[in-house]
Amino acid sequence: MESLQHAEDVSENRSDLHDAESLESETLPPLGEQRTRNKDVETLDENEPLKQVLIYLSDKRLKQLRKIAYTRGVSRASLVREAVEDWFTEQSNSKEKIPNELLEKILDYCSKDYGDGFEIDGDTGFVAMMQENKLQLKDLTKKQWVEVAKKIDIGFNRYFSQPSPEEFAGKFDPISPSKEQRAWLSSNENLPEDSEEEKGKE
After folding, report:
1. Is the same domain home to 104 and 90?
2. In terms of pTM, does the model score above 0.85?
């Protein structure tokens, strides 16, 4: 019985390996143009050495992958590699240039009256603290900007004599806001929202 079970396990593993290999080798050529496995790998991976891995997908995703591969004239495996590269690129781009811990310290330092106030101007205000630490608004991630904008809004509403929107936005020019950030600073629009928070509300 044990030898029979072993034979079944080996057969199943070979089947999985065959499926994994077919993911790479099933190149669906459009317009009658045949593309070999090696050519496809070299084109999309720039001759980098590859390691074989085994992945599992639902029938739905596998059919979608097959359809896209056929349309683009590449193997399904190359699409998976492309998706992985895109994910790593996105993660790299979204990594904060300004450490969250440092930003939180600045926001806490500038917060007054137990969070009901926020100092923007002066030697101990937000703009001065950002300059002292050589930080720029445009380097904030979207999530960081949402938190900073909330504090700025509190500070604006605590002005005894509120400046005009354009004058108010000018206060932040020394710390280089992005176009989108300055547009918000110089307007009476609602607070910006984090895209992840918006998704959670849907």
Report:
1. no
2. no
